[in-house]
Amino acid sequence: MSKRHPKRPNGHVRPIRTKRDFDGASAIVKTLSTRSDRDSLAERRMLALLHELDRFDEIVDEADAESASEEDYPGPRRRWSDESDD
Q1: pTM value?
Q2: Which of 24, 25, 28, 69 has the greatest number of beta carbons closer than 10 A?
Q3: Is the residue at 58 inside a domain?
Q4: What is the structure's pLDDT at 35?
Q5: Secondary structure of 71-83 as H, E, C letters
Q6: What is the mean predicted confidence (pLDDT) over 12-16?
Q7: Residue 61 placed within a domain
Q8: Total count of domains within the chain
Q9: Is 85 among the domain residues?
Q10: What range defines the domain where residue 38 resides?
Q11: Quick check: 46 and 32 in contact, CB under 8 A?
Q12: DSSP H helical ranges for the chain
């Protein structure tokens, strides 16, 4: 049995955790931003998506900064098995 009223956006979105989620959310934001007949619920959903997109960008930037600071030498790493037994 189907619902009488289709589910409408309520301004809450799930967290963005992967690049695929990020791409999907950015496509939805682009679609919502081009619509001229946007209502307040769609506006709240778009703002919530933008907030989650910003949060994901911050997480990715922090991860990139940590990996860059840990690596002083960008070349290949040696494995323990490559060491000589002198």
Answers
A1: 0.62
A2: 25
A3: yes
A4: 87
A5: CCCCCCCCCHHHC
A6: 83
A7: yes
A8: 1
A9: no
A10: 11-66
A11: yes
A12: 19-34, 40-70
More confident residue, 18 or 76: 18
Kindly state the tokens that stand for 68.
């860059």
Q: Is residue 20 in some structural domain?
A: yes
Burial 73-85 (b: 16+ CB within 10 A, else e): eeeeeeeeeeeee
Q: What residue has token string 């860059």?
A: 68
Instruction: Yes or no: say if 11 and 43 are a contact pair by the CB < 8 Å rule.
Output: no
pLDDT tens for each residue of 17-71: 899 999 999 999 999 889 888 788 888 888 999 999 999 988 888 877 776 655 5
Top-confidence residue, 1 or 25:
25
Q: How far apart are the C-alpha atoms of 11 and 26, rounded to whole Å?
A: 16
Token output for 35: 């619509």
Q: How many residues does the chain have?
A: 86
d(CA 54, CA 31): 18
